[in-house]
Amino acid sequence: RSIRVGAVSEQIERSLVLVKPDGYRRGLSGEVLRRIEAKGYTLVALAVTTPTAEQLATHYAEHEGKPFYEPLVEFMSSGPVTAAVIEGHGCIPGFRALAGATDPTAALPGTIRGDLGRDWGLKVQQNIVHGSDSPESAAREIGIWFPELS
Ligand code: UDP
Predict the structure, then answer these.
(1) Which end is more exposed in the chain, N or C (fewer Cβ atoms within 10 Å of the end residue's Cβ)?
(2) pTM for this model (two decimals)
(3) What is the spatial distance between Cα 150 and Cα 145, in angstroms, rounded to a whole number?
(4) How many other C-beta atoms lie within 10 A of the C-beta of residue 95?
(5) What is the pLDDT of residue 6?
(6) Which Pfam family name is an example for this entry (predicted)?
(7) What is the CATH number of the domain that holds 94?
């Protein structure tokens, strides 16, 4: 069953969310999960894990070769992340709306990055959360972080 609202699909779907090392270090995992549940999404899987080089190379394969790739991978391997699979109607675009714009400085108040982000200058990679950007990405990313679910 699928209801089309503008360009946004309202199918029940799953998304892969990461609270990145900056968010984990700042103790924001609970706040991010609270917002996910308050929105009405369900937690399907949850883990705290320090990403391996192999996981990050697969996860960020589309960004390989871009100027921010190396610093991004270095930052993402700097400590634990909280990884979650969430489920709900349109939760892929829905979580990205909760997260806000990539750059915390540009992210609107009311969003995770807008409310909790800091101005890190050039360190745009430190923006608290990751959320899958399409059903194809979500399926691929869930396989990286929770192979038992795919
Ligand atoms: N990123 C960065 N510099 C950039 C663009 C992206 O460091 O100019 C980092 C940032 O951490 C971002 C991640 O790379 O979250 C993935 O980029 P994407 O464009 O997919 O942003 P997102 O989907 O996370 O908003």
Answers:
(1) N
(2) 0.92
(3) 10
(4) 27
(5) 56
(6) NDK
(7) 3.30.70.141
The amino acid at 33: L
Is the CB of residue 143 less than 8 Å from the CB of residue 135?
no
- Per-residue H/E/C for 33-101: HHHHHHHCCEEEEEEEECCCHHHHHHHCHHHCCCCCHHHHHHHHCCCCEEEEEEEEECHHHHHHHHHCC
List, in order, residues 6 or more apart from 134 with CB less than 8 Å away: 92
Q: How many domains does the chain have?
A: 1
Is 130 a catalytic site residue?
yes
DSSP string, 12-32: EEEEEEEE-HHHHHTT-HHHH
Task: Tell me: is residue 4 an annotated ligand-binding position.
Answer: no
Domain that holds residue 12: 4-149
Residue 93 near residue 135, CB atoms below 8 Å: no
Calculate how far, in angstroms, residue 1's C-alpha sits from the geometric centre of ligand 1: 32
